[in-house]
Specification:
The chain is mainly alpha-helical. The protein has a single domain, classed as Hypothetical protein af1432 (Orthogonal Bundle), CATH 1.10.3210. It is built from 17 helices and no strands. The longest helix is centred in the middle third of the chain and has 31 residues. The termini are far apart. Pfam families: HD, HD_assoc. This is Deoxyguanosinetriphosphate triphosphohydrolase-like protein. InterPro entries: dGTPase, dGTPase-like, dNTPase_2, Glyco_hydro_18_chit_AS, HD/PDEase_dom, HD_domain, PHydrolase_assoc_dom. Belongs to the dGTPase family. Type 2 subfamily.
Length: 386
């Protein structure tokens, strides 16, 4: 069952772009949200995600997920959910593909180090930096900086995790120009994109963690949610090899979470009486979500992943060295901004310099950050594994 048709975002009713674009050049049959999605896919920032850490450092192995493959997997899940609910698939897909554009090298470890390095000048947040990338730092078009995305796409990137009461420096700057109504909830397309992200990384990080031998299966099987699926697979295929059983586990858990999300979202929309996007934004709560039972199980799964994977002793040397690399690069550039490429010299006050440094480092891939550190500071001693 789809939702009321007025709830879906309509490209013909978009609030438009900051920079008016006259109908010039070969635009083809694409609507506004399809063009946004395609601009994201063709951006430099999107291509760089192929060498940015998801859980394991990007150069570590061919089969581990990186930010790019993760984003594609999120988009697949989000697009499917949007289709079943009758939401706008193209807007949902655009938000899923773009949600991690602002990540610096080395994932959250790199983000923490970069945030600390420029804390006196507003700090760093990957979500705010995503907005900064798509509104300022991409330089694809001759008439404006950024990708000039539609208001609904920018709103979704800003608020996909809910209303923002205290926007970080970068997001506040974009909001001042665009007016993203940060105190309200975003469209259902944006809410679905955020949940698709949770579904993807909860399950795919299990896959990568078990493959790497870092995440202990016994710890996962202490969770009733995982144990139910694991045991059901064993009953269906008693002799299934471990590798295939893990893949079946990931698939089945994704299916369960998607099914729960669909049912709960329908229930919430019906209970709220929402008929339009305006109703969704004014609902005072997220209308897309998991049931209370699955929320509890998903939180337990996240706690298990943090304890046994993200904060695993085997990964700590990598995290420490990654943070050292980013911190040293930031210190070197802040101490002597002349080390930055010429294109990154924009203004000379301390705050502007700090922002230039953050923008430049955040755009680095893992291998490029390692290379620049070796050139400017000294050797990088990442463990051979992880």
């Amino acid at each position: 069952m789809t939702l009321p048709p007025g709830i879906a975002a309509r490209p013909s009713e978009s609030r438009g772009r900051v920079h008016a674009e006259p109908d010039q050049g070969p635009r083809g049959p694409r609507d506004a949200f399809q063009r946004d999605r395609d601009r994201i896919v063709h951006s430099v920032a999107f291509r760089r995600l192929r060498h940015k850490t998801q859980v394991f450092v990007a150069p570590d192995g061919d089969h581990y997920r990186v930010r790019l493959t993760h984003s594609v997997e999120v988009a697949q899940i989000g697009r499917t959910i949007a289709r079943v609910l009758g939401l706008n698939e193209d807007l949902t897909e655009a938000l899923c593909l773009a949600h991690d554009l602002g990540h610096p090298p080395f994932g959250h470890a790199g983000e923490d180090a970069l945030d600390a390095a420029i804390a006196p000048h507003g700090g760093f947040d990957h979500n705010g930096h995503t907005l900064r990338l798509v509104t300022r730092l991409e330089t694809t078009y001759p008439d404006f900086d950024g990708l000039n995305l539609n208001w609904e796409t920018l709103e979704g990137l800003a608020k996909h995790n809910g209303p923002v009461t205290a926007p970080q420096w970068a997001l506040a700057g974009v909001d001042a120009e665009v007016g993203l109504e940060l105190q309200t909830f975003a469209s259902l397309e944006a809410q679905v994109a955020a949940l698709a992200d949770d579904i993807a990384y909860d399950n795919h990080d299990i896959d990568d963690g078990l493959r790497a031998g870092v995440l202990p299966l016994d710890a996962l099987l202490e969770l009733p949610f995982v144990a139910r699926h694991w045991d059901a697979i064993g009953r269906r295929w008693p002799d299934l090899p471990m590798e295939r059983r893990v893949k079946a586990l990931v698939r089945d858990q994704i299916g369960t979470m998607v099914g729960d999300l669909l049912a709960e979202t329908r229930r919430r929309v019906a209970g709220n009486g929402a008929e339009t996007i305006a109703d969704v934004r004014a609902a005072g709560m997220a209308l897309a979500g998991f049931s209370a039972e699955l929320v509890a199980e998903e939180r337990a799964l996240k706690r298990c992943l943090y304890a046994n994977l993200y904060n695993a002793p085997a990964l700590q040397p990598v995290r420490v060295e990654a943070q050292r690399v980013v911190a040293n690069l930031a210190a070197a550039y802040l101490d002597d901004p002349r080390l930055l490429p010429d294109a990154w010299h924009r203004g000379d006050c301390p705050e502007t310099t700090a922002r230039n440094v953050a923008d430049y480092i955040a755009g680095m891939t893992d291998p490029f950050a390692i290379k620049r550190h070796e050139e400017l500071v000294g050797p990088v001693e990442l463990p051979e594994k992880f």
